Amino acid sequence: MTSAMTNAMTKAMTNTTTLACSRRSALASFTLAAAAGCQASAPFAQAPDSEPHPSAPPSPPSISPLATPVVLSTWRHGLPANAGALRALARSGTALDAVEAGCRVVELDCPDMTVGLGSRPDRDGFVTLDAAIMTDDGRAGCVAFVQGVAHPISLARLVMEKTPHVLLAGAGAEQFARECGIEVAPPKLTPEAERQWREWLVEKKYEPKVNIENHDTISMLALDTQGRMAAASTTSGLAYKMHGRIGDSPIIGAGVFVDAPIGGAICTGLGETVLRTLGAHLAVEAMRAGASPQEACEHAIARIIAKNGDPKSYQVGMLALDYRGRVGAYAVQKGFNYASGTNLVDAPSKLG
Ligand code: SD4
Questions:
Q1: Which atom of ligand 1 lies closest to the CA of 130?
Q2: Which CATH number is 250's domain given?
Q3: Is 350 a residue whose pLDDT tops 80?
Q4: Distance between CA atoms of 330 and 349, rounded to whole angstroms?
Q5: What are 202-232's pLDDT values in tens digits?
Q6: What range does the domain containing 89 cover?
Q7: In this predicted model, what pLDDT tens digit does every residue of 47-64 receive, in sequence order?
Q8: Regarding beta strands 70-74 and 218-223, do their DSSP bridges make them parallel or antiparallel, or are they unpaired?
Q9: Which residues contact 267 (CB under 8 A, 6 or more apart)?
Q10: Hey, whose CA ends up nearest to atom 2 of ligand 1?
Q11: Residue 223 dihedral angles phi and psi, to the nearest 5°
């Protein structure tokens, strides 16, 4: 070997070692901060725009499509949702179609009455629905506080594809639905929802209390074999919430976020806690800084707990996915499960 070659090799190795070390130390400080449940330091520190970034995050990974798609959904009703998503993938092959189709399955039939028109109402007896859909190229559509629409997720997709806006709410969203030829039904509870609501009125005396049982939702992430990722969420939010209350699910960055070539994250649980921290965005940005999807979920849940007080009083579950197909799952409390393809998986949690 010539001395020139030896010098070049030594230089290359030194550069590689320096890069690996800075990435390792960035990750180490990230992990320590996450473990401490506090704001991370070096990798997340933002400098003013005019100054160079003090510690640039690792360069983004490139996307190599996987041979098989990945589909993730929150809770047990994620199993039929995933089945619908996988059927859509077999037809069109796009992650966007997959998450919409999966959400539609649960909007039509949600046994725990937390998604779609069959849901439990707000405290005034109205079912008001929230939904969001997002693709990894930054396109997004959301609807909030809509009534009478059987498939809010498809309305959210129409907002994304047919309007210059991201979020439509209430009567305006319903008007847009009619303009698109979508039926908007008059408010009506199912007999079971009405029975439970009347019982609640007697017991709770109209107080919009939340606990860890009066909500659920379906949030989904899909990665197709072309290397495209999409996220979606659809929900009736908290049962017996105040009329007009909107949760995290239709808010981009809170309930859902996806960004190529980093990955995506979705949330379920008490929306107020996720809104205060923009949980899904937090997890994706942690992945951008070098965290694995699992580390990213743990980091975001730690931040949610740090900002929202006693974690025994609420539940949040989070899923994250990257383009290598790696999955992260973490929750505040025990009991959060999710569907990964055709399997139901129990997620680890902070409170064990
Ligand atoms: C909300 N995050 O409206 C939704 C509800 C939910 O598990 O996901 N519950 O707050």
A1: 3
A2: 3.60.20.30
A3: yes
A4: 5
A5: 887 666 565 555 567 899 999 999 999 999 9
A6: 70-346
A7: 333 344 445 667 778 888
A8: antiparallel
A9: 219, 233, 248, 249, 254, 255, 256, 274, 279, 280, 316, 317, 318
A10: 271
A11: -125, 120
**Structurally, how many domains does the chain consist of?**
1
Ligand 1 closest atom vs CA 315: 7
Among 218, 270, 273, 274, which residue has the most ligand 1 atoms within 8 Å of its CB, making it the best to mutate?
270
Element containing residue 337 per DSSP (H, E): strand 337-340
Give the pair of three-digit tokens for residue 287: 């992945």
Of 81, 61, 31, 19, nearest to 268 by C-alpha is 81
* Closest approach atom of ligand 1 to CA 219: 8
Query: 162-206 pLDDT, tens per residue?
Result: 999 999 999 999 999 999 999 999 989 999 999 999 998 988 766
What is the model's pLDDT at position 35? 37
Residues with CB under 6 Å of ligand 1 are 215-217, 235, 237-238, 247-249, 268-271
Helix or strand or coil: residue 232? strand
- Ligand 1 geometric centre to CA of 162 (Å): 27
Residue 151 in any domain: the answer is: yes
Q: Which residue has better confidence, 260 or 10? A: 260
Cα 218 to ligand 1 centroid, rounded to whole Å: 9
State the DSSP code for 347: P
